[in-house]
Amino acid sequence: MNTMGDPPASRRRPQRRIGLYAALIVGAVVSLFPLYWLLVVASNTTSDIYKTPPRLLPGPLLFENIAKVFDKIDFAGSLGATLIVACSVTALVLFFDSLAAFAFAKYEFPGRDKLFGLVLLTFMLPMQLALIPLFMIMTTLGWVGQLQALIVPAAANAFGIFWLRQYTIGAVPDELMDASRIDGAGFFRQYRTVCLPLIRPGLGFLGLFTFIGVWNDYLWPLTVLTNPEQVTLQVALAQLNSSFGQDYGMIMAGALLAVVPLLLVFLLGARQFIGNIAEGAVK
Amino acid sequence: MADLVTRSRPRRLATVAVTSVLLLAAAAAPNASFGAEGTPVDLTMWVWPGALSEKTLEAVAADYTDGSLKTSVIGDNFKTKLLTSFTANSSIPDITGVKGEDMPYFLQKPELFTDLNTLGISDILSEFPEWKLKEAMTPDGKLLGLPIDIGPTGLFYREDVLAEAGLPTDPAEVQAATSTWEDYFAFGEKLKSATGAFLQVNMADVFSFVMAQYPTKFVSADGEFLGESPEVRRAWDLAVEAQQRGLTAGLQDGSPDWASAVLSGTLPTVLGASWHAGDLKSSVADTAGKWRVTQMPGGPANVGGSFLTIPAASKDKEAAIAIIRELLSAENQATMFTDTGNFPARTSAFEEPAMKAPDPFFGGQDVVSQFALASESMPAVYNSPFDNVVAAAYYSELSNIESAGKDPEQAWRDAVQAASEALASSR
Amino acid sequence: MTTAVSGAPSAGRTQRRPRGRTLSRRWPLYAAIAPFFILFSAFGLYPTIYSLALSFQRSDGLTTPTWVGLANYQQLLGDEMWWQAVQNTFIIFSLSTFPMLLLALIIAAMLNANVRFSTTFRIAYFVPNITSVVAMAILFGAVFGQSFGLVNSALNAIGLGKVPWLNTPFGIQLVISLLITYQWTGYNAIIFLAGMQAISKDVYEAAQVDGAGRVRTFLSITIPLLRPTIVFVMIVSIITGLQTFTEAQVLTSTGATAAPYSGGAGHGGLTMVLYFYQQAFGYNKFGYGAAIAWGIFLIIFMFTMLSWRYSRRREDLTRR
Fold it and tell me: What is d(CA B158, CA A258) in angstroms, rounded to the nearest whole number?
């Protein structure tokens, strides 16, 4: 499948293909270069960076800088906190959103379309509107500085419902629905036996997407996590970055540490993730 | 079949509910422990980088045996974080530093802090300068904080770069050559033509140090707007003049660009308080030995100088004041000076041997006497709680002149207008 | 929208034969969608309404708030810093969005052209999107340093002078835009790719038979058929792009108490949301901050509606 309308392989001009590959490779290098640069800075001293021209190759100090990071901030703690938040939110989002999406996708009930329209509407509200009051609500609940403040408000989101509904409509055939109904299955039974197995790839996509989003969230955690001992990775990283005496080697080592776990999770699920989007998840 | 359905449904819901609750409970595990009789009381303390010596912090934490003392060093915006904590009434530290420039603001909210007079400190009060104590005192005599350091200013300079420019390098000679702002600018022009170096990091720097030399800032003690006073105007004009004569580098203070310029010698002169030495030592350690200190052009001023306070919500005020006493002991104050450059507020600290030792960063110069000299002639300044909000307009417009090429006269008018509006809307 | 294999006449939706029209039969459905609405009401709707009320008050979080009516909004209309923030946001938006969408389209087209290692390439292009924005912002701050940054060293090496990236307002905006472009191009490329792959082969074969060249095919067939996806991506980009915060805050952060969150030199990096944060949490003006938040919402809403209308009209025009 290609958009360019290429002539069949036997007549494809080799130069064009080379040009194509060259462009793709250049783009890939540009995409990945900052990661490489991150590694370079994280493994050298700050003075090496201030020199003109700066060093271009990784140095020997990676582990030393990493040790400094662990010294300055409770990296393990913030990693743990971020993991808890990301996993909890992802699990809750997958559960609540798939449930709602299934209902919207495969059932008729009074007010369904209006309610779904309402879901779409909520998607348009920017989060800053709610930020200050949310903060005050968290104050009243006593959740400021606690991880629940990050988990509970994020536990169901409109985008997930919207996207999963599209997916569910396509992935769950009506015949299976009819068949299971004849067997006497009610909503939750159908959800468990019919829907879930079929939307698993879609869940995988949404799960990864949600996980990444929560992992990288900054504004709300910055606002509500007032206890410096319990912050997420992004906030901890920003705390490293004060002015005067910036130890770039250390800061970038911290940045590298913040990126690596996510990269691993991503690469593990990448094929499915990328494959999923490309397999017409946008229907 | 219907039975199967009805039986599994509640179980599902139950599993989900339990899992959710468990997840939430795990996330909600409290950090601090509140002590009853005999149980350990864990305390938290908040400071910013360079507030106190790290060695001292560790030693004091080790000495506190009734529990653990956890010190959080908070980079980024300290006041914002502290205020957010107070607002949310959550994670409030048991001891916290308060920067000198923020103290006027907090003085308006004394209920957030403990009156230290009630904790039996009258025995040590005489060892702190009266004017500094007043900065943390409410009109009805409550003392909200004990001073950590004061901020006598000086002129830090690289003697190697000055020598290269054929300028005097001995502190007394440099002081003689730069005793007024006009002399200082002329000095800077010589520096520029010889080595291409800049005198000042940016216009805001000139502005803020000239302002620091006056007894009042932007708002008077009666709440009157002083933004158009001749003093403010002069500070403004000097900043503009510095820029027009090509003496400012246009860099952001404290940024990596600044550090790079200082390292390379493009910024060989730095105005700053005693605590600025700590910033220099941590950012440009490679230039150790090449720095000297002399008196600031136009006369000394006090910039900065912070306090240790005990929030009203503190768990154990007795333990907190004991910790503060230890942190501010004469010996620890001297250590603080050698480690961070903060000039001790406690006068008895000057007897300590550490204060008399020569500093290798300054090529063995006795910088203590320079700052001590400055501290004797610093003007007493009234800081209004509205100063920061009002000053922001001026710094904003200076930034516009410097990086966006705005016309200085227009900028002045805009600054004055924005500043007076800011004052009006803050009351 | 493709439909699953279905014997029923309706498109993918099942008719549940009502065994009784009482709500008790339907309760699982409402229970299924309830969590979202409950959470949204508590943490989305209620705060939004509260914030509207808050915008009519003066509150610093510590003292009791006072009611001031429309004063905050009046102040906002005359607030020069606010309008500068709006301007900054739109500049950053323009600098980042249009190049980014164009690049994403081109990359998607390339990836679609039957290349080997396509999954590897796709992963490589997607990686920027999953790296932490904070980390990347710090890195870009170092890379674009005036006297020592990598970019200036490179420029210096080829004879062009050093550019004061982060010390001029426009430089700051440029770096922020570059950061945004870097992060989102790959992501949007993958989305476009998905859209492209949904276009059926028949259309391309017909075009080939007609003798259409590669570029012609791309412009006249691919792009029009991709329109819904393009519009979707554009709308999402508008909504998220106008809310830029992290990149701006991290790139311009200093510890200065005097002017917290002020957006760096000449306030070039002061975006709307950064200004909101500055007023709300830097100066503790919660009422004014709420008013700013509503200002942001109105601007985003109006701009999104305008873009939506515009794209609609273009669509109608292209239909013959």
Answer: 39
Give this prediction's pTM: 0.81
According to DSSP, the β-strands at C66-67 and C57-58 are: antiparallel
Q: CB-CB: which of C61, C253, C258 is closest to B395?
A: C258
Cβ–Cβ contact A96 with B under 8 A: no
DSSP string, B22-83: HHHHHHT--------TTS---EEEEE-TTSS-HHHHHHHHHH--SS-EEEEE--S-HHHHHH
Q: What are phi and psi of B386, to 5 degrees?
A: -95, 0
Please report the ipTM that was assigned to this predicted complex: 0.77
Q: Are B283 and B417 in a shared domain?
A: yes
Furthest-apart CA atoms within chain B: distance in Å? 100
pLDDT at position C93 over 90: yes
Q: Which residue has the tokens 């400190």?
A: B121
Q: Which architecture does CATH list for C72-318? A: Orthogonal Bundle (1.10)
Residues B293 and B183 in one domain: yes
Q: Which residues contact B363 (CB under 8 A, 6 or more apart)?
A: B159, B289, B290, B291, B292
B359 lies in which domain range?
43-150+304-367
Of B343, B367, B391, which one is at a domain's C-terminal end?
A: B367
The model's pLDDT over A212-269, given as tens digits with 9 standing for 90+, comes to 889 888 888 988 888 888 889 888 888 877 655 677 788 888 888 888 888 887 887 7
Find out whether B208 and B220 touch, Cβ atoms under 8 Å.
Answer: no
Residues of chain B with pLDDT under 50: 1-15, 17-18, 21-36
Residues of B in contact with C254 (CB under 8 A): 252-255
CATH number of domain containing B96: 3.40.190.10
What letters, b where the CB count within 10 A reaches 16 and e where it falls short, cover A19-53?
ebbeebeebbeebeebbebbbbbbbbbbbbbbeee
**Which phi and psi angles does B121 have, rounded to 5°?**
-110, 10
Identify whether residues B274 and B343 lie together within a single domain.
Answer: no
Q: What's the gap in Å between the CA of A205 and the closest CA on chain C?
A: 13
Q: How many domains does chain B have?
A: 2
A-contacting residues of B 41-70, CB under 8 Å? 44, 46, 49-50, 70
- pLDDT per residue as tens digits for the range C231-241: 878 888 888 88
Mean pLDDT of C218-246: 83
Is B251 found in the same domain as B226?
yes
Strand order in the sheet with B95-98: B69-73, B43-47, B95-98, B307-309, B145-147
Instruction: For chain C, give every domain's residue range.
Output: 72-318
Angle of helix A248-276 relative to helix C133-143, nearest 10 degrees? 130
Domains and CATH numbers, chain A: 9-62 (no CATH), 73-240 (1.10.3720.10)
Identify the chains in contact with A, defined as 3+ C-beta pairs within 8 A. B, C
Is pLDDT at C6 greater than 50 in this prediction? no
For A:211-230, CB contacts with B below 8 A are 223, 226-230
C217-231 exposure pattern, b = at least 16 Cβ within 10 A, e = fewer: bbeebbeebbeebbb
> What's phi and psi for B272, nearest 5 deg?
-175, 165
Chain centroid to Cα C4, Å, comes to 32
